[in-house]
Amino acid sequence: MNSKSKPVDVTEAKSWAFEEAKKIINRIKKTDKKEIVFETGYGPSGLPHIGTFGEVFRTTMVMNAFKRLSDIPAKLYVFSDDMDGFRKVPTNVPNREMLANYIDYPLTSVPDPFEQYSSFAEHNNAMLIRFLNSFGFKYEFKSSTQLYKSGTFNECLKKVLENFDKIMSIMLPSLREERQQSYSPILPISPETNKVLQVHIDEINLNTYSVVYRNPDTDKKEEVSILNGNCKLQWKADWGMRWVALGVDYEMNGKDLIDSYKLSSKICRTIGGTPPENLTYELFLDEESKKISKSKGNGLSIDEWLKYAPKESLAYYMFQSPKRAKRLYFDVIPETMDEYIDALQKYKINPSVDNPVFQIHDGNPPQYDGVLKFSLLLNLVQACNTSDINILMQFINKYLKEASTSTKEFMKKLADHAIAYYKDFVANTRIPQKPTKEQAIALSTLKTELSKMPEDTEADVIQNIVFEVGKQYYSDIKEWFKTLYGVLFGSESGPKMGSFISLYGIKNIISLIDERITHAE
User: Fold this and answer.
1) 29 exposed, middle or buried (CB, 10 Å; 0-12, 13-18, 19+)?
2) Half-sphere exposure of residue 102, counting CA atoms within 13 Å on the CB side?
3) 77: helix, coil or strand?
4) Alpha helices (H) along 29-119
5) Residue ranges of the alpha helices (H) in 385-458?
6) Which residues of the chain have pLDDT under 70?
7) What is residue 241's three-state secondary structure?
8) Angle formed at CA 63 by CA 267 and CA 140, multiple of 5 degrees
9) Residue 80 three-state SS
10) Which of 24, 87, 309, 353 has the CA that lies 20 to 30 A from 333?
């Protein structure tokens, strides 16, 4: 979500992205680096989920903050571990029986179950690239397969072999006793079966930089070079090696990889490197508060979120509180969208660099004249009982009056999303409650007061009338609004009533009240 940035004073910035960027500033004071490298990594063993996107987004925010604090060039590598062995068939893809025949094959050698690309890895890489490009991220995509086979990693792989025993001493204490017997940081790719083998290494040869092992599938001893893609590293060793080979200065990871980061850091130092600066973020959770999994496909996908809300809302969700675990399911979308709109409005009043919209728009948040909340639009869809965007826009354009073209275009996009969200998640759950006789009397009074007002009455004036009527009948004003939301919308909460009535129209709300109170108990 990049745009042309404006000069701004960021010296006092305190948001998490700037705090992370300052860590990198302190790091490079000790070096003479001419370019800073940020990295994110993912494994294409399953369809890329929204957490993968979130890591790229958050890293981009740190990189953007760094660029505002330093003149040293910076770039982002998005690394795909696509040479890893295929260990488990995902539950959310077609042709699963076919995939089961390719367990332990490099992911770039596993056929695409969707029959669109030359391999499963290529399919998943293409999906991720498409998502990242749609947000305008600036990055260089790096394929593990290409880097291994091209020899890019060769020099670091030699260092791994030269320090084989030291790396084993780092890794073995972290493993179960059974796994210790077969563990090796180097995974040969069998020249006979093409499988990525997790086998014990019997011999290492530093003269030829090769390893000897027994192939469990053929029971034969094989010797292969560790160079040019004939072997791959176990992922913790791979992670540490990659930091050295690519000169990585910053990489974040999920809470589940804290111990892995520590082990990879030790391996990185063992082969002569310095581990990158690091932020540990909390994991996204699904509807049942369980960890999101690529193989299960639980939680929200990027496409699903973008069906129901614009990308700005997803960016806002990803930016907020990376160190706090958050549910990532459909019901978070309306609230997130409304928080984004609130942040835009706050930025217009106080253009702070610590406002999330400053960073997700790289210093240039859109200057809308005023936009309607997503929750209000959902109620408008219900009140109008329509999925016709043209009908909704008649109400919206009347309410916005002299708003800019960009504001109206954004509102049309938001209304489209609101229609989709309402149809799929709200329509069958909201059943307006029948008002009691006492509630009907209060609503009837509101109707009478509203009928005295001209159609173009300002929202704040309407809101005052709603309050005054409520005070006549309710000692607790919150109960009055619960009545309004329950009877009019079938929900426990709702929009600011003055704004909604101004949008929907006084005559229309009077008709809606009439309709509801005719069914009073």
Assistant:
1) exposed
2) 23
3) strand
4) 50-69, 96-99
5) 389-400, 405-421, 437-451
6) 1-8, 287-289, 292-299, 521
7) helix
8) 70
9) strand
10) 353
How many residues does the structure list for the chain? 521
Other C-beta atoms closer than 10 Å to the C-beta of 60 total 28
What is residue 135's DSSP assignment?
A: T
3-state secondary structure of 403: coil
Neighbours of 270 (CB within 10 A): 20
How far is residue 256 from each of residues 40, 248, 289, measured CA to CA in Å? Answer: 15, 21, 15
Alpha-carbon distance 184 to 172, whole Å?
9
Give the tens place of pLDDT for each residue, 216-272: 988 999 999 999 999 999 999 999 999 999 999 999 999 999 999 999 999 999 999
Element (H, E) at 71: none
**Residue listed under structure tokens 């040293």:** 72
**Single-letter amino acid, residue 385:** N
CA distance 297 to 9: 42
Instruction: List phi, psi (to 5°) of 27.
Output: -65, -45
Q: Which two tokens stand for residue 119?
A: 């391999």
Q: What is the β-pairing status of strands 284-285 and 326-327?
A: parallel
Q: Quick one: which of 371, 370, 361, 375 has its CA closest to 312?
A: 361
Domains of the chain, by residue range, sit at: 16-167+235-284, 437-517
CATH of domain 16-167+235-284: 3.40.50.620
Query: What's phi and psi for 121, nearest 5 deg?
Result: -60, -45
- Assess contact for 43 and 232: CB atoms under 8 A: no
- The pLDDT assigned to 3 comes to 42
C-alpha–C-alpha distance, residues 328 and 317, integer Å: 9
Phi-psi bin for 454: left (phi > 0), alpha (psi -120 to 50), beta? beta
Fold of 437-517: Arc Repressor Mutant, subunit A (1.10.10)
Q: Quick one: CA dihedral 346, 352, 354, 358, positive or negative? A: positive
Q: Output the CA–CA distances (angstroms, integers) from residue 382 to 265, 398, 467, 496, 500, in the order listed.
A: 55, 18, 23, 16, 12
Q: Cα–Cα distance between 314 and 306 in angstroms, integer?
A: 8
Burial 397-417 (b: 16+ CB within 10 A, else e): eebbeebeeebbebbbebbbb
Separation of alpha carbons 157 and 245, rounded Å: 9
pTM, to two decimals: 0.89
**Residue 422 per-residue DSSP state:** I
> CB neighbours of 341 closer than 8 A, spacing ≥ 6?
371, 373, 374
Query: Using one digit for the tens of pLDDT, what is the confidence trace for 154-173?
Result: 999 999 999 999 999 999 99
Report how far apart the first and last C-alpha atoms of the chain are (Å, whole number): 52
Amino acid 8: pLDDT: 62
Give me 78's structure tokens: 């998005």
Q: Are 121 and 56 in contact (CB under 8 A)?
A: no
